[in-house]
Amino acid sequence: MPNSSSVSEFLLLAFADMRELQLLHFALFLGIYLAALLGNGLILTAVACDHRLHTPMYFFLLNLALLDLGCISTTLPKAMANSLWDTRAISYEGCAAQILFLVFLVVAEYFLLTIMAYDRYVAICKPLHYGSLLGSRACAQMAAAAWGSGFLNAVLHTANTFSLPLCQGNAVDQFFCEIPQILKLSCSGAYLREFGVVVFSISVLFGCSVFIVISYIQILRAVLRMPSKQGRHKAFSTCLPHLAVVSLMVSTGMCSYLKPPSISSPSLDLVVSFLYSVVPPAVNPLIYSMRNQELRDAVRTLVEYTILRCIHS
């Protein structure tokens, strides 16, 4: 039986054996990846270039776009390369790097979404204190805390996971490396240590979820008391996209890490992991731009300016 010292590479899940289907998967992943790059890239550029968007809400949205770009770039390029070159292999170090960066980016994103809920709470429920509570220094410190906490969490999980002896081969039933799949390869009983760390992390994220729920209960009460219909519409237009992103991330993440083993199957694991690792980075730009007129105007101005520059050059 192989152990962790003898495993030099892992074998990722093959989507299909037929060459035509492999190329189809490559084309599908490429389209999703390019859409995510374009959408998040437009948000990054629009927020950075438009002085009207230099506010705490859009600063946090810029950080979210960066995390989304990193998250989808951790999983899809390797999956596309494997489909294109008809291989399943990923090195031991590459697998560890995937888990490190994926956990780092996903956890940091959820901490950031918690901060964004606080931002909306202060903006709507305590508007007179917004400037003092969310100044540029405070925003930078909160964003740094989200990134730093995500990184420390990732280092802890990655080091703990890859210190386990592996006795169940090296075939991973997923198109990228993730902790639950590596734990399935560990020796019997050895995964309990990592399970304890996972429970601790879930407890922290559950605390973030409670904070988000309480924040939005207060926001809803404040919005319903607004006398102006236009004010209510503007408040909802900035809060609903955030709620949609949080709901998508929480539901898919919980299905992936908390579903009972009795209902686990390779196809279900594949769908759920695709939903939490690929779909949010691709659809977040669309969700945030659908109801945000300021962001749509900034993106439209950026696109028009780019087209004019291309025409005149």
Automatic annotation (TrEMBL):
One of its GO terms (molecular function) is G protein-coupled receptor activity. The chain crosses the membrane at residues 23-45, 57-76, 96-118, 195-217. GO terms for cellular component: plasma membrane. Residues 39-288 form the G-protein coupled receptors family 1 profile domain. Keywords: Cell membrane, G-protein coupled receptor, Membrane, Olfaction, Receptor, Sensory transduction, Transducer, Transmembrane, Transmembrane helix. It is a multi-pass membrane protein. Its main location: membrane. It is found in: Cell membrane. Belongs to the G-protein coupled receptor 1 family. Odorant receptor. This is Olfactory receptor. It comes from Cairina moschata (Muscovy duck).
